[in-house]
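[step 3/7] inverse_fold.run input=structure_tokens len=227
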């Protein structure tokens, strides 16, 4: 059973999501809160697997609450929900440690699939979203002080990281590099361990910060390239 906490300042939104999720055989809502501060209390108490977090709330917003959870080492995965499809929100949410970012008007099947995906240890990194993030990052200073983090990454792991950052799934990466999907999963796990990151979204953020992916780069060019 996937345990879920809803954090949103609109009661109608919370009740609507709860009705959808409680109807699933493999998930259930174990707590609700109307702002980030009270949401932290509920999450600490209930220890859910997934948190659906509104990004704009009175007092502590969803970004601050997500950052607090990640800083505490909370195991719950956060999916940010919003009605505003703005790049800056996406950047802040994912940088804070969210495992996904979804609009509130999405089809219900997409919400359900997203929760199952994130609960399983994966993350929502759609190609369209990663492309916008790449374009946003080229306008930011390069984080050269963080390049040393990648010194222990092998050349093959760097190939995988570049393709991962370009928005490819494990299956697509396997096809591009002519390796088994289980091998890709192993490489991703090693990358996360070596970089001390919680999931693949954070690996993508790290790759953007150090310009391992460019806005016009063909991800297939990552194969065999020294970084």
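[step 3/7] decode complete -> sequence:
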């Amino acid at each position: 059973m996937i345990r879920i906490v809803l954090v949103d300042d609109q009661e109608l939104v919370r009740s609507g999501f709860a009705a959808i999720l409680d109807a699933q055989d493999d998930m259930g809502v174990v707590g609700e809160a109307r702002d980030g501060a009270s949401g932290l209390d509920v999450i600490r108490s209930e220890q859910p697997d997934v948190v659906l977090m509104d990004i704009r709330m009175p007092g502590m917003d969803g970004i601050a609450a997500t950052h607090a959870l990640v800083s505490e080492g909370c195991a719950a995965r956060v999916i940010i929900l919003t009605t505003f499809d703005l790049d800056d929100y996406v950047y802040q949410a994912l940088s804070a440690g969210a495992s996904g970012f979804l609009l509130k008007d999405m089809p219900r099947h997409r919400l359900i699939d997203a929760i199952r995906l994130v609960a399983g240890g994966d993350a929502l990194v759609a190609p369209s979203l990663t492309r916008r993030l790449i374009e946003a990052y080229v306008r930011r200073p390069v984080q050269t002080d963080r390049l040393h983090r990648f010194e222990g990454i092998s050349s093959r792991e760097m190939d995988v990281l570049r393709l991962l950052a370009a928005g490819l799934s494990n299956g697509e990466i396997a096809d591009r590099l002519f390796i088994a999907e289980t091998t890709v999963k192993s490489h991703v796990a090693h990358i996360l361990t070596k970089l001390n990151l919680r999931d693949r979204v954070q690996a993508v953020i790290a790759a953007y910060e150090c310009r391992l992916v460019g806005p016009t780069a063909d991800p297939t060019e990552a194969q065999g390239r020294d970084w």
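[step 4/7] annotate
Confidence is low (pLDDT under 50) at residues 216-227.
The longest strand covers residues 27-33.
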